[in-house]
Amino acid sequence: MRKICIINQKGGVAKTTTAVNLAAGLSRQGKKVLLVDMDAQGGIRTSFNCDDQPDMHDILVGGVNVLEAIRPLGKNLDVITSKETLTRCELIITNEKDRESLLRRKFEQIKDYDYVILDCPPSLGILNQNAFLYADEALVPVSTDYLGIDGLNKIVKAIANVSTVFGHNIKITKIVPTLFDKRNKICRQSLDKIRSDYYEIVSEPIRVDTRVKEAPANGKSIFTYAKSSRAAQDYGKLVQSVINDEPQIEKLADAQDPLEVVQVIPAVAK
User: Fold this and answer.
1) What's the predicted TM-score (pTM) here?
2) How many Cα neighbours within 13 Å face the side chain of 169?
3) What values do phi and psi take at 27, rounded to 5?
């Protein structure tokens, strides 16, 4: 079972969009997927028009069994949602013993999936530390602009630090350039920089497409809402790329450095 957190401490990089469409795309390829919302903004609940209860808040601090919070979205795709009450969790669990591994303990019963995809909040707080320590892989969406690259370098360094501090060997297995517009010079330059620094784990870019913004308003993934759109094509390529990585995951499990898979690492990430 692959456990992948979709993470970037910078907001506005299409993180939830990527989590939703990666999970939906994998399920359409016959993979059994659990999509988990770790963000109090509740983007996944909104994207699929899910009901509110029970949710991640109830699992983490409300005593609800995780299996009771799973709801089906479609064939091969289940979800655990969140809403604004999740913000209370960080305050509640701050003084708990082994607070960073709470999610891992709560999710011990989750076994019968090919993928668990966690949509993480844009922060480095306790909830994201829990996501880091539960997941085996990190997928980092990054907007193709100057601030996006700065945020990418920061989250790469943060993941390496968490791995060192907690002794948990999470791997960055995919960096996903988003909001790409080839007509824009800074987008082209940023994509070149990302590819230069992290070339072996950079996916094809996700191009700007208004239909990917419209899909959540209709409670659908991009594959259902606009299957012939650029965004559907791009996310389809991402899904296939993640599936193609499956034979390498066992090998990566033996790596000691979370960035060992990267052959060229920028100085800021060291």
Assistant:
1) 0.90
2) 11
3) -65, -35
Q: 2-269 — its CATH code?
A: 3.40.50.300
Domain-wise residue ranges, the chain = 2-269
Query: Using one digit for the tens of pLDDT, what is the confidence trace for 195-229?
Result: 999 988 999 999 999 999 999 989 899 999 999 99
pLDDT digits (tens, 9 = 90+) for 50-76: 876 799 999 999 889 999 999 999 899
**DSSP string of 181-227?**
-TTSHHHHHHHHHHHHHHGGGBPPP-B--HHHHHGGGGT--HHHH-T
Q: Which two tokens stand for residue 153?
A: 């370098």
Give the residue from 83, 123, 120 showing the smallest Cα distance to 103: 120
Prior bond to 54 cis, omega within 30?
A: yes
Beta-carbon contacts of 129 under 8 Å, excluding residues fewer than 6 positions away, are: 100, 162, 166
3-state helix, strand, coil split of the chain in percent (to 5) is 50, 15, 35
